[in-house]
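ESCALATION

Customer reports they have been waiting on this structure for their group meeting. Please prioritize. Original submission:
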Amino acid sequence: MKPPQCIGCNRFTIRMARSVQRHRKNVTFLVAAVLVASTIVVAPLWPVCGFVRSAIKVSGMVLLVAGIGLRLVSIAYVGGRKGEQLVDSGPYALTRNPLYCGSLLMTGGAGLLFGSIVLALLYAFAGWLLFSLLILAEEDALRSIFGNPYDVYRNRTPRWIPCSYRAMPAP
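Update from on-call: job pushed to the front of the queue and completed.
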């Protein structure tokens, strides 16, 4: 087994990420079940009424729609090239994982739709944790498929937070 290629990753983390990747449907279902259970417990803890609750719910809807939009644009952009060609332009020039960024927006938005900032943070954290493990496994696979071009792309493009100035070529 070759050593892990990501900063801060150890062999255990890579093994766990690969295991999560193999069982992603079951793990996602388990995380969703825990989040639904937490919704029953956490939602009533911070009752917010009136305008504030409406603003929180509208913010949730905006995040949900933005996440869906980002996922749709990313899926349409990559087309049938996934796994065959290293896609490093379009939304993939801003972040290596626009699909997971869209999903993260959606998880936070779902929490806000319940009218709870606490749930939004809980949902977003759970999503970030799950998606981060999936990303580690995918990055390891992409590195073995594409080699040095992927390393260049990985060093140039952030994993999560889009940075348009990093995606622009130097003058």
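Sent to customer with the following note: The two ends are 40 Å apart (CA to CA).
Escalation resolved.
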